[in-house]
Structure formats: structure tokens, C-alpha cells
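Sanity check. The docking grid for zinc ion depends on where the pocket ends up, so I'm generating a full predicted complex first rather than guessing from homology. Inputs follow.
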Amino acid sequence: MIDLTIVLFGLVFGSFLNVCIARLPQHQSVVRPRSQCPRCGHPIRWYDNVPLLSYLILRGHCRDCRAPISRVYPLVEALTAVVLVLTFRQYGLGPEFIKYALFGMLLIVLVFTDLLARRLPHVVTGLGIFLGLLLSFIIPVDDRPLVWIARHWDVYLEGAASSVAGAITGALVGGGLFYVVGEAFYRLGGRQKEYLGFGDVMLMLMVGTFLGVPLTLMTILLGSLGGTLIALGANALSSRFRKYAWPYGTFLGVAAIYACLWGSRLLDLYLRWSGIAG
Ligand SMILES: [Zn+2]
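Predicted complex below; grid placement will be based on this.
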């Protein structure tokens, strides 16, 4: 029952995320004007604007001019519903759910704006950094590395101060280390393409404020590794991918969603296996 409610909310929010994905890279308002068909300009009727369902009923075509509707719309709606349900399964229904649901939705927007328009709008990442810092006062951010270091100077961090400090260091480490990884990508790519943009740095600042240092590092590792493997695989399959500019932010965004949902488990497993934590 709760699952079903969350799915419905996910579809409705996903529908709004679609508007953000289509308009924010063009610096357009997400409130006005109302949605219209990009080919014939006819405003979308309210009953043709039902998430997922309308796409199926209209069989992916505009009711007026039969122009095909992008498959990205139903995909984003379904994906948002899935991410929200997984977040609920992981964190239950509480403040943590709200925090990580917001994080997941910000990431979905960024994954698709980078994929479709090679943009990571500062409105989205800026809002994310602000929300991440704000929510770190209420929901604890992983601050273990910082607490561990501070203890060696006889400084004992705890409570909200420790959590906020965890968010800030997460952001600094994410943004800082990102330069190193981005530079490596740049060199591997033969210095022909600029893989590093300020948008990517903003994205990692945002991820850092939500996840803290350990999971931010995991995001960079998984995003870079996954991106490299996919790019190498695609290059091996077809030569037309050689000139393709891979959206780094998309890989980082997917990795951050993974880290948010299952990263702690993977991290604990690694810490125990490596003997760092008993
Ligand atoms: Zn049309």
C-alpha cells in the first residue's frame, strides 16, 4: 500500500523532473508557459499529461500532429518512481527518506541534463548544495574520517556540529579530488577533449554535502570506473563512439544514486574485509 502511494508520488514528481530536464538547460522557467507539443505547439491537455499512462494511451505520439513524444518522458517518470521506492525500502518513511528522495530526484535531473544537453545547471547543483548543508543539521552525515582525525588532536566532535563538518569536508574532498580524476580523464583522452567543467565540480560539491567523505569517494571511484569501462566497451564495439563526448556527470550521478542506496553496505563490507574496522 505504501509502495503504491510512493510509486504514484514518484510518477507525479517524475513528470515535473521532465519539465526541469527539458527547460533548465535552456534557462527557461519550469512554471510557465504550460507544456506544449514542440512540433505543432498545441498545449498539452490535462488528461494527456498523466504520467506514464498518457504516453501509453497516445502510443508515444502527439494527439494533434502525431509527432513522436520522446521516450525520455516515460523513462524519467518510471525511474523516479523506482528510485523513490528503493529509497523507502532502504531508509523507511521518515526524515531520512525525505532527504535521500530529494537527493535522488536532483540527481535524476542532472543525469539527464548532462546526457541530453551536456549541461549540469547551477540552479540544480546550487540548490542541492544548499539543501545538503541544511539537512546535515537534522540528518547525520557520515563523519567517521573527520572524527577519527580530530580524535588524534584530542578534539571530540559530536552531534550536529560533527554532521555539518562531515558534509563540508565531503564537499571539499569531492570537489577537490574531482580535479585530479578529471585531469586523469583529460590525459587519457589525449588532451583533445575537456572532460572537466565547473558543472561537474558543483555536482561533486553537492554529492559531498549529502553523503560525506567515504561515500563521495565511492561515487567518484564507481562513476569514473563505470564511465571508463562503458566508453572503452563502446569504442571496441563501434568506431563511431571514438568522437563521442561522454557525459561524465551522468556517470557520477548514477554512481551517487547507487552510493546513496547501497553504498554504506558496500563500505562496511570493504572496511571489515580490509581489517580497518572489526
Ligand atoms: Zn503536436
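Relevant for the grid: Residues 94-278 form one domain.
Also worth noting: The mean pLDDT is 89.
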